[in-house]
Amino acid sequence: MAATELRRRGVPDATVARLPAYLRVLAAMADRGVRSTSSEELAAAVGVHSAKVRKDLSQLGTYGVRGVGYDVQHLSLEISRELGMTREWAVVIVGMGHLGRALAGHRGFFARGFRVAGLFDVDPAVIGERVGELTIQDLADLPGTVRGRDAIGVIATPESAAQQVADALVAAGVSSILNLAGGNLAVPDAVDVRPVEVAAELQILAFLRQRRDFDVDLERVAP
Amino acid sequence: MAATELRRRGVPDATVARLPAYLRVLAAMADRGVRSTSSEELAAAVGVHSAKVRKDLSQLGTYGVRGVGYDVQHLSLEISRELGMTREWAVVIVGMGHLGRALAGHRGFFARGFRVAGLFDVDPAVIGERVGELTIQDLADLPGTVRGRDAIGVIATPESAAQQVADALVAAGVSSILNLAGGNLAVPDAVDVRPVEVAAELQILAFLRQRRDFDVDLERVAP
DNA sequence: TAGATTGTTAATCGATTAACAATC
DNA sequence: TAGATTGTTAATCGATTAACAATC
What we know:
homodimer; alpha/beta; Arc Repressor Mutant, subunit A; Rossmann fold; 2 domains; three-stranded antiparallel β-sheet; disordered N terminus; DNA-binding; repressor (chains A, B)
């Protein structure tokens, strides 16, 4: 048992970051009725090399069979468990602008084992409004919704409000935060924050394009 | 000159990924009237260690002064240039659901040098609708909008439509794509795709939380 | 000058990749 | 058995970090 725990502890970050992609592809295969797959097939679907797939999967356990491949159902279940998808996670969304509403209605969340359990805002004009099956609540009511649950907070407010919302989430006992608002959040060590930076991604795309154009120009000058 | 080009070519991926964060912090400092800063200060604001800041910035050029620090304006300008923010990039958004509308109205884009130049959908019910200063166009009219411009395509459709939209973008000459729809896109080598995977980030948060809880349990059993 | 802070070097760490023995 | 494919090893590559000489 100790060995299992040490192994689990040690799944490399780069591997963890790829597990959702493997799980998505495996779920799609299962839907199509595919029973068995190989590292080569998974690699092609996810867009990496097969050695990486084998390395990654071997970090979790010995789920493949030499000469045969991987059982889609079994591997899917093991990755689900590893990612905590066998528990129920309550997702609370703070900020009910277009972005918050987009997330609230996102079918991919439910499909991947998350339940949107609360919608919050501070604007009296939207508090009380019904969005799908939920009613937008005052941010002050957050603690009542998250108490005693495995909750993940999603910040979908303007950047200027992000830190205050993060403070409120932490105070309510939320220790996993997805930050779509931009900016750096100050939170206690025990709290995980994952930023999603759309504007930064655009800048990275601009950088990459500019560099490519530049390299092409260089080739013209000195082929 | 050749040396400059070789250097530029060689900015490591990990550094490129952090440039937008440096630029954001520097812009905020400039707004507050701060003239000069240090690697230590930048590091604190971005949430990394100062050695990394110095290493990153030294990849771009020699913009600091030993014993003094960095000039906020100057460094800001250099990073802007490196990220291509001195050109104008036309952002076209495909998919005018809540997510697409959230992006269309995002003030952070404009602030960071991007111009939303086109909004597209295939649903006749929304084509022609005005959103901010633009009118939603038929996806078929994409080529007219992007012709002759540095364009970045943003896919904000459901996952099921993502590949078709990517094909349309590529056919129209767009070679930088931000994919918010999920899934893996097949595109030519000369096209850059950056995925933004909200659902995957939630799964990673769930994984990290589960591992932390598990480690705490372990400590209780064997302190 | 003395104090401060960069840019760079070297050491360390982690991730990727290729190759192949193990084994179904 | 012969062919296929994994799991693992070793080599390579890239990123991080600590330390400090250079220098304002």
